[in-house]
Amino acid sequence: MKRIAGLIAIALLSGCTQIPTGSVGIVKGFTGRISDEVAGQGLYLSLLTSYFPVDTTLTRATVDNMRPKDSHGVSLQDVSVVVSYRLDPARVAPFYRNSKEIDREPNSDLYTIGLEILEQSVIPYAVQIATEKSDLATISSHLADYAATIQNVADKRLRDLYPNIDPFVLQSVTVPAFELPPAIQAQMNAKAGYQAELETLNAQMQVIEQRKALKVAQASIDAAALAAAAKSTGLTPAEIIDWKRARAFELLAQHTQAQSVIINTAGKK
Length: 269
What we know:
The protein is α+β, with helices and mostly antiparallel strands and about 270 residues long. The chain has three domains: about 1-55; about 60-185, Band 7 domain (Tetrahydropterin Synthase, Chain A, 2-Layer Sandwich), CATH 3.30.479; about 205-269, no CATH class. It is about 55% helix and about 20% strand. The chain has seven helices and ten strands. It has helices spanning about 1-15, 90-100, 115-130, 135-140, 145-160, 180-235, 235-269, and strands spanning about 15-20, 25-30, 35-40, 40-45, 50-55, 60-65, 80-85, 105, 110, 170-175. The strands form four sheets. A three-stranded antiparallel sheet has the order 3-2-5. β2 and β3 form a beta hairpin. The longest helix has about 50 residues, at about 180-235.
């Protein structure tokens, strides 16, 4: 009896499907109909019903060696894009019923849906549309903006292709740095040099303007002081200026005479 019970248990377990944490199960009935509802985490008896576990946690789709053209028709070289996404559990079954695509995730035992659609269609399309909206120089110096445009285009493309059943929730798009054609790189280097020189000139102009402003401020202070002195002494501004010059010459003469005395004294010694 124990042996029979063990055989029955083995038979039952062999007809079970485990839906792991972070996944949902696509449910396919005996007649082949795909259920609108998905199975949650757990162990399910699958004698008359089939269950296909689909990972809904973060997954990455990568496309390498793309050569999209910019707004001037110049091709970028070997562009790579990594799209991180997760799946909306409520839309997994309707999407699968429409696409009939289920894929093994790279370097994993888990399965996902629509990975081939992303890598072979949606991502290359989004990269080309995003690229032709700008030029190489702008793209290479603003990769974050370029990646954001790719994500927006991909989102719209998926909504257009699969209205109301698009299960993809795009989390991020990453574009690693890429090499520019030599001619474009030379232009960018020249532009960078020109920009640096321009910034230096602007800094020098700011110093000149600051000095001018200081001179104007000092002149204003001197004028105010002269007016105050004229008012308190009863002299005219011209007389005060003449007095200041005479006083300056007098001090200079005294300073020169003092130096002469020191020199003569040193000579006597």
